Structure to design on (213 residues):
């Protein structure tokens, strides 16, 4: 029996501790644990796990954006979101980003291992409490539909999150290896695309879309 190597991504120690207990299975091995989206990108590349269990709302880079970036270089890894967000919009965004599973934290004890088993077999697993709503949401979602966030580039979404987390332009420039002028350019392009006027409005928008807590 081949053991599947798991990478866990969540910024809450109590959640990670609970996951260790739930995932204590003969055929599963926790190969790595990270607490922010940027660390997830590095670990996914270095560890090359079979399965990634990831939260949506994480520091520095949210889970959905991280998964989009991971999928550019790795089409085979199984990705399951484990989140507190029961909103159908979050679930459809997560699945569209490349996930095979979407489990709610309040039912992780009953459903997470099942989700892992199902996704290993090539199935998509969605939490029972929202499965029908998500199925309807995906089927009714027009191929031409785009989230307002889709109007932003990947780099702009990164800048948006860091601004919403309270980092200053110079700090963002250092983290993303950009010039402060380039960060300012992205900042004003983001505001223009989303119809926002202040950093406070950006922060509220980011919170409403699960980019920051």
């Amino acid at each position: 029996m081949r053991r599947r190597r798991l990478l866990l991504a969540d910024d809450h120690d109590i959640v990670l501790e609970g996951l260790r207990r739930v995932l204590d299975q003969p055929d599963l091995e926790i190969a790595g644990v990270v607490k922010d989206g940027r660390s997830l990108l590095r670990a996914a590349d270095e560890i090359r796990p079979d399965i990634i269990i990831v939260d949506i709302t994480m520091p520095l880079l949210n889970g959905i954006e991280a998964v989009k970036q991971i999928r550019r270089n790795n089409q085979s890894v199984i990705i399951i979101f484990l989140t507190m967000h029961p909103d159908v919009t979050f679930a459809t965004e997560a699945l569209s980003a490349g996930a095979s599973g979407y489990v709610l934290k309040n039912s992780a004890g009953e459903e997470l291992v099942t989700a892992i088993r199902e996704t290993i077999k090539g199935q998509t697993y969605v939490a029972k409490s929202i499965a029908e709503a998500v199925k309807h949401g995906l089927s009714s979602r027009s191929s031409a539909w785009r989230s307002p966030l889709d109007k932003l580039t990947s780099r702009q979404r990164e800048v948006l999150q860091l601004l919403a987390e309270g980092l200053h332009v110079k700090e963002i420039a250092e983290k993303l290896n950009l010039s402060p002028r380039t960060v300012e350019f992205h900042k004003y392009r983001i505001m223009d695309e989303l119809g926002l006027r202040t950093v406070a409005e950006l922060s509220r928008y980011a919170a409403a879309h699960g980019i920051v807590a």
Remarks:
- The radius of gyration is 17 Å.
- Residues 148-208 form a domain with the Arc Repressor Mutant, subunit A fold (CATH 1.10.10.10).
